[in-house]
Design goal:
Keywords: ATP-binding, Magnesium, Membrane, Nucleotide-binding, Phosphoprotein, Translocase, Transmembrane, Transmembrane helix. With 929 residues, this protein is of the alpha+beta class. Helix content is 48%, strand content 18%. The chain has five domains: 144 residues, Distorted Sandwich (Calcium-transporting ATPase, cytoplasmic transduction domain A), CATH 2.70.150; 70 residues; 287 residues, Calcium-transporting ATPase, transmembrane domain (Up-down Bundle); 156 residues, HAD superfamily/HAD-like (Rossmann fold); 202 residues, Calcium-transporting ATPase, cytoplasmic domain N (3-Layer(aba) Sandwich), CATH 3.40.1110.10. The structure holds adenosine-5'-triphosphate.
Length: 929
Amino acid sequence: MSSQPLSNADIAWHTLDLAKTVDLLSSDAETGLTESQVAERRQQYGLNELEEAKGRSSWEILLDQFTNIMLLMLIAVAIISGILDAIELRAGDAAANEIPFKDTIAILAIVVLNGSLGYLQESRAEKALAALKKLSSPRVRVLRDRKFSEIDGKDLVPGDIMLLEAGVQVAADGRLLDAANLQVRESALTGEAHSVSKNANLVVEEHTPLGDRANLIFQGTEVTNGRATALVTNTGMQTELGKIAGMLQSVESEPTPLQQRMSQLGNVLVSGSLVLVVLVVIGGLIRVGGFNWVVLRQLVEVSLSMAVAVVPEGLPAVVTVTLALGTRRMVRRHALIRKLPAVETLGSVTTICSDKTGTLTQNKMVVQRVDLVEHHFTVSGEGYIPQGDFQLQGKTINPQDYPDLQKLAIACALCNDSVLQHDKDGWSILGDPTEGALVVLAGKAGVDKEPLSRQMPRKGEFPFSSERKRMSTIVSGEAGFEMFTKGSPELILECCQTYQAGETLAELTPEIRTAILQRNNDLAAEGLRVLGVAVKPLNDIPPLEAEETTERELTWLGLVGMLDAPRQEVRDAVKRCKEAGIRPIMITGDHQLTARAIASYLGIAQEGDRILTGQELQQLSTEELEQHIGEVSIYARVSPEHKLRIVQALQHRGKFVAMTGDGVNDAPALKQADIGIAMGITGTDVSKEASDMVLLDDNFATIVAATEEGRVVYTNIRRFIKYILGSNIGEVLVIAAAPIMGLSQVPLTPLQILWMNLVTDGLPALALAVEPAEPNVMKRPPYDPRESIFSRGLGSYMVRFGVIFAAVTIVMMGIAYNYFPHWQTMVFTTLCIAQMGHALAIRSNSQLTIELNPFSNPYLLIAVTATTALQLMLVYVPPLQAFFGTNPLTGTELAICLGFSALMFVWVELEKLFMRIFSARHSVALPLD
Ligand code: ATP
């Protein structure tokens, strides 16, 4: 069978009936395409990819760099400095060995360099985003060569049969083959926020608008409910989404609160420095009593230097790099950050609300118990291998001898959407692990799902949802139609009237009901996840909306108890979490006793802790819920909408909440949470879209690891802000002191200041950004996310350090000015070298430098050594001397610089020592970071 060359985009698929559609696409609804057909079609249609919507052009990115206010100010400084040089040149005052317009050229070079760095960073960021998009490209379940498998969305070709279920993002346009309760949100295409119902059996008019083509599904839309299979009609740029260019949502890269505060700080500093310039010029002119060209020139030079000194030119780049590195470290620990602000705020999380299944447990279910009313079986066997023994009171039995057990096994196999398969890697399941465990159980009882589902094909269904906590399928067999139902035992039991006893039916008396519920509790208390299974003969296939009336008067088959072992690493993570002042909370759809058993094992709940069920929660008012929220560490039998209420109540109590979720209906709670966390493996596309972070391994321990990284990032950001801004304050004060002290020249040129701010401060600051975690990082309570970056002593430290730094340098400047010829180079060198000692001392707030392992941050050692070497080159290499306006220092001059520089290191160390003694005497806590 070879495929016909089609121009699929021109065909009005919605007007065709099913048979015609399958025929036109040369496909087969039973078997799917063959591998050779797939290869042939991939040649013909290409990959199922949308051409990237054009982002900003390189030119635009480049131009955007120069709208930064700090760079604009530097450009202004360069121009004014150029004008001064030009006037001097015309007047013939310029020194013979001076390079004309040196400052202007150098500042412009730094502007270009800074701009190019920004440009490179942004282009990199765009590339990283594109890579992220690829990573999050949806996976699709398809039927090919009679087998179900999961492939990348981009590998779909027209004619493929794809399976859709609630939560998936549709990866290509298609014609529905069958659909059960299918609802799709098509807002990406039609703008309509509500979900629309779909129906495979319809054929609609040619001119029906897109939103009403109920028999088609479209790429980029989201399945919000139900299940379906569909035949792919169009892929790539031929899909409806592809036709509307530029509609692709881009992955968000909003500035973090810190970046916003930094750009505000930039504005304040720039305006502040402009005010300083005006004040210095006017004040100076008034002092000399009128206009004087020489004085004006000097004042303008001082002002320009101060303007450049006050602005931390290197800071934005260091912040960006730190956040980027933080994101990278988090990915290495399996946490993918989708929204950059999360990197910074993760460290402030006070409460982690986690799902149970898959996050706290392994999500590898194995049925261990089957409880019929009259027989309680124990089942053995490992993993998904459909072989194992049934034991009754310690004796192995033959499951074929128990007709009620056989009936339950048939129900487990047919009321089921997952597939058990065997390949070279052994047995595995495709689909939900709970259902997988049931297919395996059926296999152990001698019921093979695949041939059975051909004998008894599915004719209808009421799909599973976390709200309904049950599902039913309707099959047709020799004895007519039959409905199998499974779900939460309490709910299923309520719908039953009779029970299966051997081959016959018996009445469910109140005593038997109580006994079943007791058994359910017993199994749940052992930590097992328990489902109830039931059956009902039907005369015909009920309509989709008749679930309430149909799922009644059922016959009870039995309880199935499966073990979902807790993840071992989570126990330790919970402990770390508690030590770090973070409260873990379990939220689960499962039974409260199952939840309690697992929560107790993991350390989430202690003896006597309160459990709140969804039903109880429903009856609480918002105020009541807020009152109780502090005592509850387990929420059981909850629905996704309860999650939203829980987050809101916690937030009202001032908590900073991280919340996990995987289903479509979890999206509102994920959006509401301060950090919404989606599951990378089991999560639906919709939940990922709503999240701030995706757990690549679905593991609770990863959340704790990411929180730790968040704390490290925040601490490091505070550390280098302290380092950079403290130095800026020092520089400004030193420059301002010069005219006050009556010095004849400006101590630092704009070029030297730029060098310090960008290179000699910038390199060590970058190294401080990768400082490893301090030992106490997860032993202290979280900080308030709304706190100012300058809180907890950071602001006062900066000012204190800046003033002392300036005082030490000014004393040195006074001595040098009077006794040494190269006083300006001495000031320049002292400011640079003092910062090297500062960088080493600032690594810890509480530990002295000698107590730290110097090699635990080798980057800092490299940065300090390289920066010192560069500074010495500037002082001693002649071409650099000419360019930066330095002079070679004599041995004595250099020794004086080093001596004064060392004072700053000693100061910071003494401060730590003083704090330590003070806090020990007065029993106050040291300011941890
Ligand atoms: P968590 O929220 O911790 O992930 P969960 O995965 O158990 O918990 P749901 O998937 O919403 O939460 O399941 C809720 C309940 O619905 C289960 O306890 C079970 O009784 C029932 N249930 C789960 N899966 C199925 C299924 N495939 N068919 C029928 N009932 C199910």
